[in-house]
Amino acid sequence: MHDLIQQFIILWAVIDPIGTIPVFLAVAAGYTAVQQRKLALFAIVTSAGVLLFFIIAGQLLLESMNIALSAFQIAGGIVLFLFALTMIFGEGKPQEEKELLAQQDTRSSSPVNHAIFPLAIPSIASPGAMMAVVMLTDNHRFEVMEQGITAGLMLLVLLITFILLLGATFIHRLIGDAGASVISRVMGLILAAVATNSILEGIKTYFALSV
């Protein structure tokens, strides 16, 4: 149970459903309610497809390049730690990704394009999320059933994200950009602690195998 809660917290932190709400509102501005629902659904389905691909094939691709598990665990921890630092000290996920949206010519972009970028990637299926799902489904440490449970937890977080996006206007009215930023920073702090633990475990494994 403890492991499941830890995995859920990690996935919640890297996917960051609350931090995605301001990005969604910026993307969905000008669309009808029906179009906004389709936008949210397509973004979630796209994100699920991307993250499931990394669960299934991510580690195989790394191993095909002869990357040691411990090295990947250390590197993954460092990447997650840097990702966490951007959540804590950066402008904040909503502002950063709304700036990416502002760089696009919205008049020539369809709802589908907006659902893919910046909503699905990099807001929901972020680089940190891609790295996290690979680490949480390591073939050498987890059985297929355990990996399936992790995939199920990821899909649960995405389902919650979808529900939150459907109520994005109401939620944003309650917490505002500042509230979303605070929550994102707290999640970043938790993720930094998890990433540090991953680095230490990777170093321990490396030296244990070297002896």
TrEMBL record:
Q: Where exactly are the transmembrane stretches of this chain? A: 6-27, 39-61, 67-90, 111-136, 148-170, 182-200
Domain of life of the source: Bacteria
UniProt KW keywords: Cell membrane, Membrane, Transmembrane, Transmembrane helix
Q: Which InterPro entries match?
A: Multi_antbiot-R_MarC (IPR002771)
Kindly list the places in or outside the cell where this protein is found, as annotated in its UniProt entry.
Cell membrane
Gene Ontology cellular component? plasma membrane
Q: Which Pfam families match?
A: MarC
Could you tell me the membrane topology recorded for this protein?
A: Multi-pass membrane protein
Which family does this protein fall into?
A: Belongs to the UPF0056 (MarC) family.
PANTHER family noted in UniProt:
UPF0056 MEMBRANE PROTEIN YHCE
Instruction: Output the NCBIfam families linked to this UniProt entry.
Output: NAAT family transporter
| Protein name per its UniProtKB record | UPF0056 membrane protein
Q: Which organism is it from?
A: Hydrogenovibrio thermophilus
What's the source species' lineage? Bacteria, Pseudomonadati, Pseudomonadota, Gammaproteobacteria, Thiotrichales
